[in-house]
Amino acid sequence: MQLFLKKYHVEDEVVAAGVSGGADSLALALRLKECGKKVIALTVDHGLRPESSREADYVAHVMKAYGIEHHILRWEGEKPKTGIEAAAREARYDLLCGWCLQHGVRFLAVGQHQRDQAETFLLRLQRGSGVFGLSGILPVVERDGIKVIRPQLMDTPQFLRDYLYQRNIQWVEDPSNQCEDFQRVKIRHFLPIMEEKIGISVERLAETAAVLARTREYLEQQIDVLLKNHVRWWNGVLVSMSKDFLLSLHSEMRYRLLAVLLRKIGGKPYAPEAEELLRLAEDLQRENFKGATLGDCEIFFARRRLWVVPEQRKKEVLTLKQWEKFALDYPNYAQANLPYKVRLALYNKLAKR
Q1: Mean pLDDT over all residues of the chain?
Q2: Which 8-state DSSP code applies to residue 68?
Q3: Of 4, 137, 245, 256, whose CB is crowded by the most CB atoms within 10 A?
Q4: Is residue 166 one of the residues assigned to a domain?
Q5: Is beta strand 69-74 parallel, antiparallel or unpaired with respect to 38-45?
Q6: Do 154 and 272 lie in a common domain?
Q7: Do 200 and 58 belong together in one domain?
Q8: What is the pLDDT of residue 175?
């Protein structure tokens, strides 16, 4: 744990931890405290099971016994009837990161472990993911301005249970962890068979994900260089870059670059689906490409440049008089010979601030 905190520069005194009551998250909170951190435990009560409130109260009891500040966050409102697992996960992170933002806490620790990593690798393999997907759960990601850290990714579930056994601490077993309606649970039950029959262990799967994560890190570094040196950012509203340079890139780099640009300009936490992005990357090479919309963005060529602007859902008209008035406040755009869609995007964002 200490090595992880040092490696990823988790230097803040205060760290929040998502604690559900399972063995992994209870161990996480206690281990962080042993490392000298002031831990704030956050439990999300999704309200999906009758016993969830009681489990949250149990976490509060354990945290109090160890002198750890604790808060229960409740998922209020109507719950979706389909896709409940994904919706609950998004709600959980929204609540956890929202609390951290509101209280000035920069790091949120969550408890995924080595088996979670192996399951994620196989889930994404089954979906046909590439390098980025197969790199699995990353040790550090940023979400809504909060750094989400996973210090236990190389720890086994048994190690974490043994840690709690030694301290005589009970944990909560979520019944959904045994429900084979979920693909992850089916994979979990298959992992011991895979190791017995063909020698592919949880540890080996997690190690493979870690190797691919290094490849992902290298690709992300190269994308950062492209973003810095070849992409022009227009007041954070839209981007443009040379058409010739874009089309000269290797197809993989072009695909990755588009994923980043669409996510940033579209304002979404994730890039569009890989299949849609790959189709766009290929379409851009066609001479008859007329433009496209994807990820709440409009993508088109003009003035020998690629432009990515926020999608305009309302049919608005920008008059010459409005643009001339706008240009008085932003004189560097007055003589820029910008495409109409670019002017409209800039005006809609900047003039209405």
Answers
A1: 92
A2: -
A3: 256
A4: yes
A5: parallel
A6: no
A7: yes
A8: 65
- 192 and 84 share one domain: yes
Q: What is the pLDDT of residues 241-282, one digit of tens each?
A: 999 999 999 999 999 999 999 999 998 878 888 889 999 999
CA-nearest of 220, 240, 218, 244 to 231 is 240
Our count of domains for the chain comes to 2
Domain with 7, as residue range(s), is 2-208
pLDDT band at 291 (very low <50, low <70, confident <90, very high): very high
d(CA 141, CA 145): 10
Residue type, 31: R
C-beta separation of 223 from 256 below 8 A: yes
- Residue 216 neighbours by CB under 8 Å, 6+ apart: 131, 132, 135
Beta bridge partners of 109: 17, 149
Q: Rounded to an integer, what distance in angstroms lies between the CA atom of residue 9 and that of residue 56?
A: 30
CA 225 to chain centre: 21
**Is residue 41's pLDDT more than 80?**
yes
